[in-house]
Amino acid sequence: MNTRKRGPRLVASLLSVLLAVNCLSVASLAFASEPLDSEEPAAVVQPVDGDTAVSTLETAESDEAEQSAAQDQPVGAEVEADTDAAAAAAAEGDSRSQEAADEQPKAEASDASDANDEAVTVQAEGTDDSAVVTLAVQNNVITSFEALLQDGSGPVGNVSQWQVFRMKGNFELPNGQVHAGDTTTITLPEKLKFNQTAAFDITDENGNVIGQAVIDGANKTVTITWTDFAETHSDVSGDFYFYVQIDRNMVDEAEDIPLNFDVSGNVVYGGDIHFIGIPDPAPYYMSKNGYQVQGKPRYIHFQIPINTIGADIQNAKLTDGVVNPGLTIDASSFRILEGTWVKIKGDWELQNRTDVTSNYTVQFSDDMRSFTLDMGTISASQGFYVIYDTVASYDLVDGEVIRNDATFTGNGSELRHISATATYFEAGGSAVGYVYAINVRKVDEDGAALAGAQFNVVRVANGAVVGTITTDASGNGSLSGLLKDDYQLVETVAPVGYTLLSEPVDVSAGSFDSNKTANVVVENSLERTSIPVSKVWVGPAAGSVTMRLMADGVETDSLVLSERNNWQGSFDDLPVYDPVDGHEITYLVTEDDVDGYSQEFTVAEDGSYVFTNTNNEIVIVNGTKTWDDADDQDGMRPESITVRLLADGVEIMQDTVGAEDDWSWEFAALPKYDLVDNHEIAYTVTEDAVEGYSPEYNGFNVTNKHTPDKTSVTVVKAWDDADNKDGIRPDQVTVRLLANGEDTGKSVVLNAENNWEASFGDLDLKAGGTAIVYTVAEDEVDGYTAVITGDAQTGFVITNTHEPVVPPTPPSVEKPTDTPKDTPKDMPKKSVEQPKTKSKAKPSIPKTGDDLAPGMLALGALAVAGAGCLVWARRTKRNLQDR
Fold first, then answer.
1. Where is the Collagen binding domain (predicted)?
2. Model confidence over 477-512: pLDDT tens digits?
3. Measured in whole angstroms, how far is the alpha carbon of residue 279 from the centre of its chain?
4. Do residues 775 and 846 share a domain?
5. Residue 632 lies in a domain
């Protein structure tokens, strides 16, 4: 290679290249256009797709050249159909990068014949001769160019004025020729321009940097500075790309444009494109477009021209919202501009514009993803521009399309609805938009294909479900139209008979190969189940039992339950579905019979079996009623009683019995053991209370006791005999007790010692349920008559009456007295109950002393006569009683 010293101009150019290398960044953003200037922007609307106008703004303070460039760049573009329509949302480049590049001297290339052999030795200012840099300009490393659609999917074909398309360059680095610091400068054809100015890296498939590129928008160049990668690798080749569009300052008529790229003095032809020309802008009630915000990678700017049609609109209202998950509206960026729309070179330009944001109230949604703007009345001469930014919560990737929907109503109807898109560009990266695909192969544990698996494909960055994949009979499924980004496959439906994946399958951006495809193999295990089995004994447990598993009626397994395994077991790892034909297997657990026990089982919701073996022993409970009530003396015995049967203290049955049942009961066929905890049931009986009786239980027999009511009868003796004047009162009398007129055989003796009073105690109150009538009778007392008063309740009083004998009155000489008359023998006997009335007449006794002797004689005669009469009277009474 020849090495020649160049002049000062070449040295300055090389120094500028070194400066540019130091300013390179690893990743770059391709901007659709410049953002609106908040100071003095002038709006220009340019057409795209079905609309004829999208907008751009220029800065009043920019120099004439910058103004001219801005006139040719779109601020954004409406996109309603295909991706290339969205590509019309283009932009000027990074102005700061442009300014930095403009300030640097440009390296000059030699003519094509010797450029590849050119080497430059540069001595930095202030250094000695040993501190030199030897650089080479490589003009034969770029082998071809090709104009492609935005996503790189095919030739661009016809190109519209705002359309952004991709220029793909291919390179080959000769072995041993390219060194670190060598450069290649590419100059665009004059009728193209960059829509971006950010630096980008050229990498291999592993991300190793081969070269670093800087775009100079003003001079339409991209300079690649090669790294030492070619020095350590052989046969280095690859491709890179950047985004361009038509330079409207250089062409406005339809024509074919040859793509001749100057590569450091060597021309590389990239074919022809056909420019369709600049049509007149179409008027609309409302249109919309968007683009990336320069210097803010997550920001997308949207702008809405209103009333370019020049109509009178009543009750105008704009509703707008972002569609992509993870994006919100930045309220601080919201502005409303008012002015007059004017057509300028195929564009709509808002002239005499004024910021009128404060004149309107904007209603933002709570999630800041949409808004409503009531604009009231708009006259035909009024034009408006509504502009704002959206912010992504994640890092956008190259080729990602951001969608925004807007609806404009007025004059009582919807005037227009539009979906606008903005595409995020990142030149030179390995990502190329929505051209990636995920292929899924679904297999079982043995690698056999599984059909019917369904996955949601979720983009990790914003959590959006971007599509679904369903595997076919060969186990394959795919989803294309993806960005190069991180995804997760969330299985929503597993193949029949297989277990649904519990965790998502990660697919990283690095999983996509050179064919832009990520191939993922997902394995599913057969859906399996377990059937737990347990045993419950009601009654004494047997030694062991055998449980058998039936699958579709065929025995496939068995297990033994015993006290050793706590009467529990499980049939495990059972396939839910038949692997041959996919039908769901029907399982049934059976138990070998156990003598002396009945068997039943239950199946829980989880499929577990509980077998209950119940001891067949039964218990009979019977009993009788015994009455201890003196043969129902008081008449209180009921006609029937209720007996209740209790099991462990809880009533389970009852029976009503009476005399016709012989006062007996029976509860038959009772289980001997409890079904819950296997204990022997304790049976008891209780009897409903019987009034007047107290129960006594002896096993299942009940004795009802009733003590008959008792009473007592008191008797008192009264004497009416002038205090025993005649001295005939006996020492005692006997009184007998009668019950209902019959002698009870009970008697009491009344005398002076008991004060002539006594009681008959412990007497039954009733007999046969009827109250007994108690009376008393007294043995006869000579010389007395008896009268009984009172009753059994208050007591009896027997009054014995005796009238003392009165001596006869002696005869009087003057007036002889009458002698007592004898009582005839046939005179009726006086009633015991009716005593004789005492006579109160007293005999008259002479008071003269002369008559004393005869009187005394008469008195003695009377006494003898009286005693005779008394003897006669007693004999007469006895005779009458004997009759």
1. 286-392
2. 999 989 889 999 999 999 888 889 999 999 999 899
3. 61
4. no
5. yes
Domain boundary among 770, 801, 832: 801
How do residues 847-867 score in pLDDT, each as one tens digit? 444 444 455 555 555 655 555
Are 775 and 795 spatial neighbours (Cβ–Cβ below 8 Å)?
no
In angstroms, what CA-CA distances link 769 with 87, 636, 775, 791, 792? 119, 7, 19, 21, 18
54 close to 289: Cβ distance less than 8 angstroms: yes
598 domain-assigned: yes
Cβ-based neighbours of 726, under 8 Å, separated by 6 or more: 783, 802, 804, 805
Strand partners, 515: none
Q: 422-426, 485-489, 655-659, 864-868: which range is least confident on average?
A: 864-868
Q: Are 522 and 507 in contact (CB under 8 A)?
A: no
What is the Cα–Cα distance from 246 to 161, expressed in whole angstroms? 6
DSSP 392-455: ESS---TTPEEEEEEEEEETTEEEEEEEEEEE-B-TTSS--SS-EEEEEEEE-TTS-B----EE
pLDDT level of residue 410 (50, 70, 90 thresholds): very high
User: Does 89 fall in a domain?
Assistant: no
Q: How far apart are CA 67 and CA 397, in angstroms?
A: 31
DSSP-derived secondary structure letter, 145: E
DSSP 880: H
- Torsion from C-alpha of 430, 431, 437, 438, nearest 10 degrees: 80
579 and 673: one domain? no
- Is the pLDDT at 108 greater than 80, yes or no? no
Same-domain check for residues 171 and 263: yes
Domain that holds residue 656: 618-705
Do the domain assignments include residue 23? yes
Residue labelled with tokens 């573009």: 77
Contact 288, 387 (CB under 8 A): no
E strands in 345-369: 347-355, 362-364
CATH number at residue 610: 2.60.40.1140
Q: Count of domains in the chain? A: 6
Which SS3 state, helix, strand or coil, does residue 75 take? coil
Instruction: Let me know the angle formed at the C-alpha of 506 by 505 and 508, rounded to the nearest 5 degrees.
Output: 155
Q: Does residue 86 sit in helix, strand or coil?
A: helix
Whether the pTM exceeds 0.85: the reply is: no
Mention every residue, 6+ apart, whose C-beta is less than 8 A from residue 448: 475
Q: Are 119 and 245 in contact (CB under 8 A)?
A: no
Sign of torsion over alpha carbons 686, 691, 696, 698:
negative
Strands 774-778 and 770-771: unpaired
What does the alpha-carbon distance between residue 321 and residue 364 come to, in Å, rounded to a whole number?
Answer: 10
Confidence of residue 263 (pLDDT cuts 50, 70, 90): very high
- What token pair was written down for 735? 């009184």
DSSP bridge partners of 319: 372, 407
